[in-house]
């Protein structure tokens, strides 16, 4: 009997969480390889940042690898030197919002502990995967890694420039990807800055600029001009909804229901966050009850409103934004970008406000914070592009990621599932819905790990030189 090999492509939070669960629960004979170019695992876009202005946007007590470990990150963090040194992490209500890189440190430590005590063999390959041939993953240097199952943990493609900026992608005033190391160091102290987008990334950019000593004016704009809402302060008991109540499975029906629940909560002197939190806990079930057309309606009309209420802002970052706004150094506008023209090293932007006349904005820097271009995921990653070109995978119908079945197995162009090729993390959210918040991503990783281990336990692999390819 040969060993069983699982190859995970991508070592951000999703891929690392999957590896942790495989290490914790796997048996001897299982070999796990994580292919991730970064030096350290668990240091993806979200938790790889070292900027002290970037904080976890929910209390640490709500961050964990599994439901059984609720509160573990909070307990771990309070014992660290980082907690003692970062006096701003503890908020007025006693909850802590660590710098985001600390969660990456925590996950890396959990991985190290799991590896030290596990019979499972773990290997980290520090280069990108570029192709899958038969049952073999090939890396950029030509190394080949045979696999019985491959798991795609590739979630966040690079941001895409708005059409009005395509011709200016190389202009020195355009900061197309604020997540690049030292990207904001190009902003001078008195620069006039515009930020396209008004979500969590915009909030991080504003906090970073403030930390770097920027004193110039900042204008953030998006089509709706909505900021992420604040987290709930203090302690409250959950407020569960009655999901047995007659309810139309439509986007409009759920909007009406949520408004009713929020109004009832207000009558009970309870905050609206309790309603949204319970909806989030049941988000995957509710999403899968909607038809494809209703899912599209939600994304087209309600997603921006859901995002600003669901993905909330750390109070420390919110305080910076409120301060800069009160001082007149930060403006928020509901507008879209009509055009952009270069004027030397500056830009002349033409904005179309909602319900107003176009206006001109002269800026020294324009930062794009519209987020990863998930619709381009299958084109921007070499491995995914190869698989899509060969028809082995396809985008989900909502263009949120990769099409999968209920077992997180990829679907080819004939909608046939591949029992040896899985997706873990946000790239599967077209199927599952709520797969961007960390608790749901962690739960998904645990579920996929359980499926893979069930296969390992029930279907030992016999390999010989003439064995057929499995993909």
Task: Describe the model.
The structure is a single chain. With 471 residues, the chain is of the alpha/beta class. It has 3 domains: 4-158 and 374-458, FAD/NAD(P)-binding domain (3-Layer(bba) Sandwich), CATH 3.50.50.60; 163-229 and 312-368, FAD/NAD(P)-binding domain; 251-310, no CATH class. It contains 14 helices and 16 strands. It has helices spanning 13-25, 72-78, 81-85, 101-117, 200-211, 251-267, 272-281, 283-289, 292-310, 315-326, 377-380, 382-389, 429-432, 438-458; strands spanning 4-9, 30-35, 121-125, 129-133, 136-139, 144-146, 149-152, 174-175, 193-196, 218-222, 330-343, 346-353, 359-363, 365-368, 409-411, 417-423. Strands 8-14-9-10-11-12-13 form a 7-stranded mixed sheet. Strands 3-2-1-7-16-15 form a 6-stranded mixed sheet, covered by helices on one side. Strand 1 (4-9), helix 1 (13-25) and strand 2 form a beta-alpha-beta unit. The longest helix has 21 residues, at 438-458. This is FAD/NAD(P)-binding protein. Residues 7-156 form the FAD-dependent urate hydroxylase HpyO/Asp monooxygenase CreE-like FAD/NAD(P)-binding domain. Pfam families: NAD_binding_9 (PF13454). InterPro entries: FAD/NAD-bd_sf, HpyO/CreE_NAD-binding, L-asp_N-monooxygenase_NS-form.
What's the short version?
With 471 residues, the chain is α/β, with parallel strands linked by helices. It contains 14 helices and 16 strands.
